[in-house]
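Researcher: Let's try something more involved. This one mixes different molecule types, so please make sure each is placed in the same coordinate frame as the others.
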Amino acid sequence: MSDVLVLNRSFFAVQIISWRRALSLLYLDHARVVDEEYRTYTFDDWREFSSIIAREPSGYIRTPTFKIAIPDVITLRYFDGLPRAEVKFTRRNIYEHYSYRCGYCGKNFSTSELNLEHVIPRSRGGKTDWTNVVTTCIPCNLRKGNRLPYEAGMELLVKPSKPRWTGTAAICYRPGFKIKASWQRFIDNVYWNSELDSH
Ligand SMILES: [Zn+2]
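Model: All components are placed in one shared frame. Result:
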């Protein structure tokens, strides 16, 4: 069935929920529908509007007394926070986090010229996580080898750290998820940041 994009009070995309939950929130007046022109509707307004919608909606819910269109987008009336999802430890996210720069020479590289580098080598107990992995160019990576930076006479220019991204970047998608055209204006950067299927 149809999913609904949820925006916070400031129109930042925060979640995707089922149409059932969306209509409940609307009915309880915790949320308002947002249309293509960024107009908002209460439950009653939307019910009325549903009968004159020109476009093809995502479907209608019919009761004995009225029908109401399933909205594509709703905005929460009270919630102004942002999703606090973890930033996944993926190659793409690591490259992004370090701006496609080598952690030792500081130069910019294309993805094919970058490696993931364990600051403390794995052979010496270094972890594979945000606290110990940075991006390096291949020459720096080879030069450092299985040593600690100071042993190789190299200086790490960045502090290995976990990125903190907020906003639409953090929306979690299920595999096989379809982004509706009507959501696009609210979630333009989602394609880059949605978690990749590892299979
Ligand atoms: Zn380098």
